[in-house]
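INFO worker-7 received task bundle
INFO bundle size: 2
INFO processing item 0
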Amino acid sequence: GLNSPFLRSKGAANAAFIAEYFEGGGHLHASGFTIHGNYENLLKEIPKTVDNLIMVQARKKGPKPK
C-alpha cells in the first residue's frame, strides 16, 4: 500500500536529509515522504535506514571541537 510517514527531530538530526533519501522533503526538524510497501515490512526497514542515515550525518559533521 501507499504510506506517508512524517519525521520530527530535535538537535542535530536533520529530518529533511532523511526525507530526501526517500524522495520526500521538508524542513530541518519536520519532514515527510510517501512510500509504497507493506506496512509491517516498512516498520522494520525504515528505522534501520534512518539509523544509517543519522550515522552518515554524524560522520559528515566530524568530531565536535573541544
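INFO item 0 finished
INFO processing item 1
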Amino acid sequence: MEERRFDANGLAILTGVSGLFCIDIDISTKDEKSKRPGIELWEQLVHEHGEPETLRARTGSGGIHLYFKADSPGLKRKRNFQGVKVNGEAYGIDGRAAGGVIFAEPTSYVNGQGELAIYRWETENGPPSYEACREMPVWLTELANNPNGHGHAAAGEEEEETEPVDPDDDMQAITKYTRGSQEVQDLLLRIVIEHAAPKAFANLGRLFAYLYMIECRILATTNETEKSRDQIFFVWNGTSWAQDTSNLVMDVFTSQMGCLLAWYEKQRERCLSTLCAGRPELEGFVVGGVLQSLDSKEVDSKQAKKVKMAVDSCIKELEKTMPSFGKINVQDPADVRKCMHSVVPKLHVKGLLDLFDQDPTVANAQNGLIDLITGALLSHHPQDLCNNQTCKYISGASTRSTARFQTFLMDILPPEAIKWLQMFLGYCLTGETSEELLVIANGLSGANGKSALKGALERAFGSYACPGNKAIFMKPSFKANGSAASSHLMQIRTNRFVSCDESDGVEELHASFLKEASTGGRINARELFCKAQSYVPQYKLFLFTNYRPHFPSDDTALIRRMVLMMFNYTFKTPDKLDANNEWHKPIDVSLKPYFESDEGAADTLDFCVRGAIMYYAEKELAPSSKVLSPIPKAFMAAVDEYAEENDKLQAFIDEACTTKGANLSVAKSDFVEAFTTFLYAGGHDVTLAGDGLARAMCLKGFSQKPPGGGNNPMIRTLDGKKRGRGFFGIRLKTDEELMEAAKKDPDPKQPDTT
C-alpha cells in the first residue's frame, strides 16, 4: 500500500536505469578558487555551438539540468562525473548517468539562507516526457566522454570510476549526497534535520528507507512457506538481483549509518561555529565551534561565567535548529537492528520470490537484457526482476570465422537436424514450455560429445542452467509420500535448462513427473519444514546418458514427448583412431577449453539466441501450433527404436506366441506364467506381467472377450485342469515350435562398440 506523507514533496529520477544522461550546470560553486561556476563555460560553448534542444529544468539553486538519451550516438561514458576541465580550468558541470540521481519538480527545500528553493521544468509543449529528451550533440558527447580533457576513450574501453568513493560506503548511496552539489547537500540536510532527535532509531531508519527506495538497490521479502519467516534481502548489483547470503545489507547499512552521522555532525559543528561567531562575547574563546580552555590567570570568574553561558545558549539554539541523534553507536548490533526495523517495511515486497525471472521472452546477460524475440541487447533495469544471468552476450559471435559451436554440432549430430536443434536450444533459453518435449542424449560409448555439449550450454546459460537431481528423471525405488519434502523441485523453479548425467541402465524413467513437468501446468513442491507451494515451471529437461533407462512401453503420452538424440560417433586419440571404422573421429582436445572460455561461451550463447529469434518468428506465424513439431526424422526413428526396445510384451509375443490361425486363445494364468519366466530370464521388471497386463494386451488388439461377441469368455488352461479368463486371437507356441524357431533364427552377434 502506498504511504502518503505531507512532507513527501520530492521527486528523484534515477538517470542510468531510466535511459537518461543528465548534464548538471552550476551557477555558483562552494570554492571558486578550485572550481569556477559551470555556467561560465556553458555560455561559451553555447555561443560556439548553439543551445541543445532537449528537455530542460531549473534547479533549486538556479542551475540548469539538461536531459539527454543515454544511448546517444558516440556517447561512450556510462558513469557519473563531477566537474569538467578545459585548458587547465575546472568548471562546475557534472554528469549523471548509471548510478546517478537527479531531483526534479516538485522537489523543494530550504537553503542555507533560509529561503525556499524549488525545482522547475522549463517546457513549452506540455508536461515533461522521455520523448522530449533528445540525443546529445557531438560536441557535448566529446566533453562528456572526456571531462578531464585527456582525449577520447577508445571504443569498448572500460572507464574508471571518477567519483570519490568513501571506502566505508560500499553502495555509494550516501556519498553521492554528502559529497554532492551544495543544493543536494542542502536538501539532504533539511531531510536529516526533520528526522533528527536523540536516540531516534525509527526516524533514522525511515530516513535510510527513503534513500534506499530512491536507489532501488535493496529489496526485502519473506518466504511465506517457512515457519520462521525471516527477512530475505536481495541486492541489485547492477546486472541482477542477488540474494544476500553474507549479511552484506546489514554491513553496508552499518557503514552508511556511520557515514551519514559523521557528515551530520560536521554540519552541526559548522552551524555551531556560525552561531558562536555571531556572539561578540565569545570572540577569541571559541574556535571552530569549540570552546578553548579558559586560563583563570587571564580570565576572571565573571567573564568565564559569561562565556560559558553564551556557549550554552548557542548549543541550545543549535539543538533547536539541528537536533542531535544522540549517542547512536553504529558498532553496536542492537542499535543497528533498532534502526533496521524501520527500514525493512519500506523495502518489503510480498511474494518477491515468485516474481523473479517471469518474463519468458528475455534472458539476463552479464552486459544487458537480451530480447529473445528480436535479439536486441537492452540496458539492465531493476524493475525487470532478473535473478539469473547468462554469460556475456555478443551479437554475431557465432558467425565469426573463429566460431566453433555450430561446426561442433555438425560433427556430432546429423547435419540436417542442426537448424531444428538451433531452434530447440533457443527455446531452452526462453521460459516457454508449450512444446512439451523431453530430450535424451544417448551414446553407445563414452567420448561421443555429450559432455562437451552439456558443458558448453551450461557455461553459456549461466545460472539459467542447473544440474537436476536424479529423482527428477528416474522413478524412485520406493513409493514416496505425496506430502514429502521435494527440495529438488524447489531448487530448479527459476531455471530454464535442467540436465542430469547418466543412468545405470536398469532404472526406469519417472514418467508421471516428466509428463507433468513438460506440460506447462503448475507443479506442487515444498522445501523441508516448509508449507507446500505451486509454481509454473520454465525448465526444459535434458538427460545425458550412455545407458537408456526403461519406461512403460504403452505410455504413448511419454513417447510423444521424447526426442532421442543419438551420439553415434566416438572421438579417439591418434594412437587409438581406427581409420577403417566409420564411427571413429579424431578428438579435438582444444574444444573443451574453448567452450569454457569467454569467447566460446559467447559463441554458444549467440547461436542459441539466434535460435530463439527463429523460434519466435515461427511462433508468430502460427501461435497455436507447436513450432518444433515434427522433430527431425533421425531423432524420431531413434525414439521408435527406443520404444520398441522397451516393449518387452511385444518382444515376448514375437518370440513365444503366434497370432496366425483361427480360434486362437490362451488362458491368462498360462500367459502370465510364460511372460514372467521370459522377463526373469532377461533381467527385466517382472511387474510388467502384473495388473497392467490386460490393458497392455487390449492396446495390442487382444481382447478378453470372445470374437463375435460370444457369451463364454472362459478358456481352458494348458494342463486341462482349470478354466479361466484369458486372451483371444493369440496362443503360446508349443515347445516344438520354439525349437524350430531357434534353429531358423539364431541370436545375431552384437556389434562392436569399442
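INFO item 1 finished
INFO post-check item 1: DSSP finds 22 helices and 34 strands in the chain.
INFO post-check item 1: The first helix runs from residue 38 to 49.
INFO worker-7 idle
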